Amino acid sequence: MDSKSFLESDSFQFHIAPYRFSEGEIVERHSHEFFELVYVAKGQGEHFYKGEYYKISEGDVFMIEPGEEHAYRSGSKQPPLVYNVLFQPTLLRRELESLSDVTSFVDFFYVEPFLRSTVHFEGHLRLQPVEQMEIESLLDRIILDFKEKKLGYRILTKTRLIELFIFLSRCYHDRKHTPLTMLSTDEKIMQHISEFIRKHYAQPLTLVQVSEMCRMSTAGFSNKFKQYIGKTFIEFRNEIRIKAAKQMLSQTDTKIVEIAAEAGFDDLSFFNKLFKNAVGLSPSQYRKAARPGETP
Fold this sequence. Notes:
By secondary structure, this protein is α+β, with helices and mostly antiparallel strands. The chain has two domains: about 5-180, Sandwich (Jelly Rolls), CATH 2.60.120; about 185-295, Orthogonal Bundle (Arc Repressor Mutant, subunit A). The protein contains twelve helices and nine strands. β4 and β5 (about 50-55) form a beta hairpin. The protein starts with a helix and ends in a 6-residue tail after the last helix.
């Protein structure tokens, strides 16, 4: 596979896209002129590399070097969803030269692909749940920038690609120096999710969504979230939303219906009821109390 057919242009040799395999799909053996970074977001399958097939599953990250023949066989029950990041090293020549002084980057970028031919695929990098959420968020931002191609997208793409390499280098470094059982605990996952909710409270977050993010059942996630955070997911999410609404009510003249929407509530009557139950005052009463002498 040549660069001109897959990468954007000679001046910007880069491409990124997700790819969902169909059941039992086979991608025949092939090679390409560029580097390919592969992240398996979901599902299972097999990957042919350096003369052998190895099992792959969600959380796996690996590099394919130029000229190396590889292939895929999709699982029959859970076909893989993968992110493919294609690029020529010339895209980041100066940045890669700088990173070449960082041992963990060299290990992941150059050494790890070589080791697979001697110690088999068990030596590759498999991300823990918290790390999976981090890399998927970063990859989705890169995909959005690359798709929209707004002003400065090439610079931003390069910056985030370096961020991606540094993140993976840190993960690889941790694998080499930290016992596997210490890499990620349920408590850390719940703390990460709670921070995610704080930052994205206005989004239509559901229990099913966050459970899937953690690769847990809704019951399993609910129990662990309550155990480590002290509240149910719904209680915690709504508490953050009400706190944001209180701030908007006391500091802005925005209409209450708009505040409800900005805080993540689609139903105004439900917002009013929940707010009064939590605060003891209706939104309009709270605004009046918080801003005495002003018309609510």
